[in-house]
Amino acid sequence: MKRKVSKWILLSLVACLLIPSVVSAxxxxxxxxxxxxxxxxxxxxxxxxxxxxxxxxxxxxxxxxGTDKFDITGNMTRAESAKLVAKIxxxxxGTEATSSFKDxxxxxxxSSWSIPFxxxxxxxxxxxxxxxxxxxxxxxxxTGQLATMLVKGFGKKSEVQTTTPWYQGYLDVAKxxxxxxxxxxxxxxxRADLVVGSYSVTEAIDKAKAKAEASGTTATPTPVPTATPTPVPxxxxxxxPVPTPVPTPVPTPVPTSVPTPVPTPVPTPVPTPVPTPVPTPVPTPTPTPTPTPTPTPTPTPTPTPTPTPxxxxxxAINAYYGQPEPNVDAPDExxxxxxxxxxxxxxxxxxxxxxxxADAKSPWTVTEIQAIVNEVRAGLALTEISxxxxxxxxxxxxxxxxxxxxxxxxxxxxxxxxxIEAIGYAHDHRYEYNPPFSLTNSNQLQAVVNDLLE
Length: 454
Prior knowledge:
Elements: H1 2-27, H2 47-58, H3 78-88, H4 109-112, H5 115-123, H6 143-153, H7 168-176, H8 191-215, H9 309-321, H10 333-339, H11 349-359, H12 366-390, H13 400-405, H14 416-428, H15 442-453
Helix pairs in contact: 2-8, 3-5, 6-7, 6-8, 9-10, 11-12, 14-15
């Protein structure tokens, strides 16, 4: 009886505890969704871009920068981009507190929040580390990395061709799929780039869902082929045995006896004595003297040439980037200069280091390294130009040298102001172009300059 009473008391207590918790959960309301109007720094942007921002905010894909600003011209870290793609592609996000990458610290509040998103994106095959055990969560994401994540997340990795640089194949597939991520994979992606690229992918996802729902098709079962009967071979008739004839015995003839002949005795001959021959003396040969061997001269070893400083610097660069876990110091800008590679500075070294690490085709020649450096410098120069037109009050005005490094020809000190004005006009009316005018598209920038010079 005592057991029954205690059991009912326990059930009553559980019920009392559950009822308040259910009510409080029902009373919880989600915070209101922000729109572009909640961010003062978005005022004045064109309506098309604001509509894309509002669409991403409504779905919870993007947020502000933690203040009252959206920071449209700023960059996004690799950790933040992992969270973005996890939301866009509706990944299952766990509650991991420890990362598989050694540089994502679970005890550091500034990066621990990103661990579940990074692990989810890694598990889905959408994002990779910078090496096998490092992720660089606080590094800003590049346009090439953005294209890679969007293409992989949309399931189009199999369409990517192996190219140089490594990200070009992903840029090509992204462009063919309608993902607007630009053409320069080396430049740092702005939050504006991420808005436009992410929105184009969500549009593609929504269209794919709508098409699947409208078709309402079911999978057609694969027909099972009817088994072909195996023919049964006709039985081979057993042969009728033929009786073996019994041979007729042949009588053995009786031999006729032949008389044994009596031999006639032959007289034994007397041998004639043979004279013993006298040996002829053989003369003793005169010994031939052994020739003295001619000594073989010892070859003089060819001295190993001492590498020049330029060769030694090139070898140091290849030694560092040619190993998964290099045990030598990373080359600085002075090593590149000694090797004959120009344009490497302390400010762009981090981006060149990343590009060389991603290329992974060491050993290179000086010409090959110079080509990679030039590409990185062009990307950074395009970013400088883009940043100025997005926020002229914050970013410095690009000069003629910046345009030259970006690969834009015809810009001089004398016509710089006219070029700036023409590009500003094209940027303000960018959606009137087909395709839309992009500040990071060097071909479109060159076309504006060419029109001005005509």
